[in-house]
Design a protein that fits this description.
about 80 residues; alpha+beta; two-stranded parallel sheet; 4 strands; about 40% helix; elongated
């Protein structure tokens, strides 16, 4: 039973995560020859303050996915404005 884990910055849409799960499952089935119902996919989402490179968080350096930068009515989140 393959178990695949993804650590992603928050902000992906439900559609993106479903497409990721579907296509990864298809690939694992093709390459490993397992049944789709035996493929497990875990998606862990992290906030912009939960991931950093070189001591700078994703929120600070603007590396958040575009969807996470848009709040209600397209307004930027406060953290994104500060970067």
């Amino acid at each position: 039973m393959p178990i695949i884990q993804f650590n992603l910055l928050e902000g992906r849409t439900v559609e993106q995560k479903r497409a990721l799960a579907r296509r990864v499952t298809e690939t694992v089935v093709e390459v490993l020859g397992v049944k789709p119902e035996n493929v497990r996919i875990l998606i862990h989402e992290m906030g912009g303050e939960d991931f950093s490179v070189g001591g700078v968080t994703a929120s600070q350096n603007g590396k958040m996915p575009a969807a996470s930068l848009n709040g209600v009515n397209g307004q930027l989140h406060r953290e994104a404005k500060a970067s």
